[in-house]
Structure prediction request, 888 residues.
Amino acid sequence: MKSNQANNESRLSETTRLEAFSDGVFSIAITLLVLELIQFLHPQNGESLLKFFLHHWEPFLAFIIGFITILICWINHHHVFDYIDKVDGKFMWVNGFLLLMITLTPFPTAILAEFLKTEGKIALAIFGFNYFMIGIAAYSICAYAYNKYLIKEDSRDFFYCIKLTYWYGIIYTLLVFLICFISIPVAIFLYMFLFIVFAFPKEFATMLLRRKQKKTKEKVSE
Amino acid sequence: MKSNQANNESRLSETTRLEAFSDGVFSIAITLLVLELIQFLHPQNGESLLKFFLHHWEPFLAFIIGFITILICWINHHHVFDYIDKVDGKFMWVNGFLLLMITLTPFPTAILAEFLKTEGKIALAIFGFNYFMIGIAAYSICAYAYNKYLIKEDSRDFFYCIKLTYWYGIIYTLLVFLICFISIPVAIFLYMFLFIVFAFPKEFATMLLRRKQKKTKEKVSE
Amino acid sequence: MKSNQANNESRLSETTRLEAFSDGVFSIAITLLVLELIQFLHPQNGESLLKFFLHHWEPFLAFIIGFITILICWINHHHVFDYIDKVDGKFMWVNGFLLLMITLTPFPTAILAEFLKTEGKIALAIFGFNYFMIGIAAYSICAYAYNKYLIKEDSRDFFYCIKLTYWYGIIYTLLVFLICFISIPVAIFLYMFLFIVFAFPKEFATMLLRRKQKKTKEKVSE
Amino acid sequence: MKSNQANNESRLSETTRLEAFSDGVFSIAITLLVLELIQFLHPQNGESLLKFFLHHWEPFLAFIIGFITILICWINHHHVFDYIDKVDGKFMWVNGFLLLMITLTPFPTAILAEFLKTEGKIALAIFGFNYFMIGIAAYSICAYAYNKYLIKEDSRDFFYCIKLTYWYGIIYTLLVFLICFISIPVAIFLYMFLFIVFAFPKEFATMLLRRKQKKTKEKVSE
Prediction:
């Protein structure tokens, strides 16, 4: 299979290995989150188990938020790569920037777990800044793949809409980052909305595509 | 291979990547268990090695229980995905719920290791609750795949029986969870029985299928 | 590719996923070894870097021994699976026993790093016992695959010799385990010999096969 | 697919599994770097978050340097294996030497994070020595594959140039290692240049190939 592959198919194989490496990073980052939970368990030898859970609910909240964050990133990465046909040298670095933000994610999650009670606004803002950077990374991947024609020819229109979703994502996360300094509950509510929308990237992009096609039709019929 | 794939085959590739990501999570969670063992090693600098092993057998027991738990989950996940043909956006989240429980597993294992001696009933109940949640997640995966026709057409009958095994699993783990608060030895015995049954998911589902077919025949012959 | 596969090919796909899961466990266990090294770095804030390296060479020795151990196991696992054609439910558990020993390996490595100076004989014996158990696991995998005809038909003779190498391995590691209690240098020398032989499993098994064929010929010519 | 493979194709499958195992090691090593960051977070419970970031910028710098280092190694490993056709027993060990250096990388990164302020020259030299060893490992992989004809026949000329880049890499990293003891800023500047060149291994090797072809033409025309 590999031996008689032409120059073009060899590049496909590169895409597969880039996906495999990225999958590895995603799955490790998501699993490392539990270490922060276990770390919390150790110092309280005197405390009883039930009291421990009552006093330390923040690490659990942070664990679940961190888990959902990385899972959403993986689902979106997976969705974007479904349309990517080939890769080049620079694309490795654009993807590498996203992976950098993913491997970092357990760190703001740990900050959230330890400082939510005492310095909630700053802790949430740091976590929110991470979202903003992930948004930039996701948009960069799409923009690069779109401009350099790394995607399947027949899905350019749809991929443009995928790219657009991450553009909206950048603006949205920047706004919510600023709101973190004003009100924690409002920021959390807005992040939950972000989660729901990007949990289903295909549906979101399809919605944008339909709206675009509708507008085009209206223009034509005018 | 990927370039000339039709819409339908593209989905198959998605299944493969979902499996790869899940495999990554399983293999990391199962390997992280050893960190808890090593953690135990550090504080006792004064103690001799043999005494250390005599006084601290709980982490080893917890390690082996945690290992078998995640291995059984992987074997069952593997078995279920053998019949799954395609995936959709929501299915990622149903599978994500199972992965959440898997990545969490090292945490109740660490609780078991540290609190088995002092607060055995509650420690075991927390570990047992984890089983109950895994049971719900496994059933959800099967039920979703069955209802949305994500499975191979010719294995619907068998897959129904697989789904049934996890339904029994939910009820069973709920009962044993309650027994944890009454008697530790009985609960451990019942969990061992659970291990043996779900260690061989194919054999268990086949047994259910045969019983079902036998009943159908009896009805026809009546 | 997956959709039109017959019953027989579906099993092959199972082998691939078992390999992927095992590869994940091997690669994580081998990378976790570095955490023990970093752990050693933390407490000595007052000490200068060069002095630190002079006083703490044992963790480095243990790291390299642990690394080579897991790498040899992976190379042998890889080699054995080259001849395995299909898997069944029980085989997952035989392989799972090997993975249990692999995930455990960072633990005896940590013991070696911390107790080599103070309780060398016992620390080495614990590490050596790990080898003995890995030997049993490797032999079990081969024996099960051989007896249940899970291997390629045309390589039964060669696979028998592979099985034989692990049988020798069990006896050898048992003997060296006992020697650990008598003399550390002799035991280390014998383990190094073990490393060299199992570093090249194909060459070792080929040697045994040739000797066997030679004997058969001699018998025929008699 | 696997069942009817000839002896030659079986070896290709070995290459794939070696790549998968290596990818696992790379992706885990790169993700473990964050643990060092989180470790830094724990002791400062009294300090406020913003002050913490102001006082502890070295772990972040070390994290990013470590991340880029391993990413560059992966990109180069990936690039080299694009031309490798088959593997043999000894090649596993040559590749294993590279993996040893990769799994070690989080350790010098941790040293950099903790000792950059107090013992900058020695900390940087240790990190630089790691580069030198990685250079030797990368060159060994290429030299072995080239000499044993493990590469695709039609890319021998290009692969020779790839091999040459790592030869230059060994000499360069040795020189910068020595400069570490003289001037930290100069060494950092030279390492940044190294990063930029090896970030795009294909372009670097292509440049060398063109220069070589130009020279050959000049000789012919003489």
